[in-house]
Protein: Cysteine-rich receptor-like protein kinase 10 isoform X2
Organism: Prunus yedoensis var. nudiflora
Amino acid sequence: MVSSRFLFSIAILLLIMITQAFAQPAHFCINNRGNCTTNSTYHTNLNTLLSSLTYNKNGNAYGFYHSTYGQNSDDQVYAIGLCRGDVKSKDCRSCLNNSRYGITQRYCPNKKEAIGWYSNCMLRYSNRSMYGVMETKPSFDIRNPQNVSSSGVDGFNQELRKLLESVRSKAAAGGSLRKFAYGNATAPTFQTIFAIAQCTPEISEQACSDCLVGAFGEIPECCIEKVGGRVSRPSCNFRFEVYRFIEPKMILQLPSPPLILFPPPPSTNITTVSGGTYMFVPLFRYKVN
Ligand SMILES: *[C@@H]1O[C@H](CO)[C@@H](O)[C@H](O)[C@H]1NC(C)=O
Ligand SMILES: *[C@@H]1O[C@H](CO)[C@@H](O)[C@H](O)[C@H]1NC(C)=O
Ligand SMILES: *[C@@H]1O[C@H](CO)[C@@H](O)[C@H](O)[C@H]1NC(C)=O
Ligand SMILES: *[C@@H]1O[C@H](CO)[C@@H](O)[C@H](O)[C@H]1NC(C)=O
Ligand SMILES: *[C@@H]1O[C@H](CO)[C@@H](O)[C@H](O)[C@H]1NC(C)=O
Ligand SMILES: *[C@@H]1O[C@H](CO)[C@@H](O)[C@H](O)[C@H]1NC(C)=O
Ligand SMILES: *[C@@H]1O[C@H](CO)[C@@H](O)[C@H](O)[C@H]1NC(C)=O
């Protein structure tokens, strides 16, 4: 007879394997963007840039970092770092630092362009500017190998679709500091589905939405009828699970838009009335962004 203790150990082992599969980083070395030899100006600039990427001036306190370094156009390097919305600054910097070593030394040495995804962050660099450009490739996906119970598949899919739509529109509407949203839903199988969606915050609402819609389109290959999955693209990513994999309490509040009582002159209207110039200043105005 198999002892329950043994089964329990197997279950734990499986859980660890699943968790590790998700924690495993994914790297893409972009070969057709060319190579850079060790100690070349580009290579040195890349190291300088990445070691300074997480300085405050390059980050926005909501897990988005971008910077560029280099004097001449042919050795200029650009980098973007993005952390999941519930990751503390300290952990974010440490994730980006680990990715830096992983990508430049272990996985993609001497590549001018590369991208790496870890469970808490994404790091990418190139010799071209990527800021504000919505990019869908390369794309990386991973699934939780466990199946949704066959009797509950339709209900699960339906709830998952609604949930993903909801986090997509919330993330896209997030504004220029952070485009990140999470939510949960209950499937008819009584499983709670948790989901997040995120874009790099500097792209537009529409671009973010388009990127996520495209990423959802990968679900059939990635993780249909699975209890978890994740698709990551350079400009956006989403993930869902039937367990709580993020810490909602850690998501920082965004500053509320300032209430402007007297708007600055450029937004006022100047009308000339016989002999004098009057400025009409609306008394109250809410700044909306
Ligand atoms: C980046 O490097 C590649 C390969 O060396 C080159 O073909 C391309 O023109 C460079 N791009 C920019 C924007 O400098
Ligand atoms: C870059 O290096 C790889 C080997 O690491 C080589 O196969 C490839 O041809 C090189 N590409 C260029 C453009 O030099
Ligand atoms: C790069 O520069 C360092 C320090 O100057 C040196 O130790 C190393 O040998 C150089 N590597 C190559 C491949 O030239
Ligand atoms: C970055 O990672 C490297 C290699 O893992 C480590 O040696 C270094 O101390 C880390 N730096 C910071 C600031 O965390
Ligand atoms: C999940 O379902 C697929 C197809 O229905 C089956 O081949 C696979 O063995 C199942 N996997 C698990 C972990 O039950
Ligand atoms: C699910 O989301 C609701 C808000 O929509 C929230 O109040 C609730 O705490 C969440 N449940 C879990 C288990 O996180
Ligand atoms: C100023 O007033 C004119 C005429 O009422 C209007 O056409 C114009 O759009 C106004 N400009 C601004 C900046 O509000």
In short: Residues 24-126 form a domain with the Killer Toxin P4; Chain A fold (CATH 3.30.430.20).
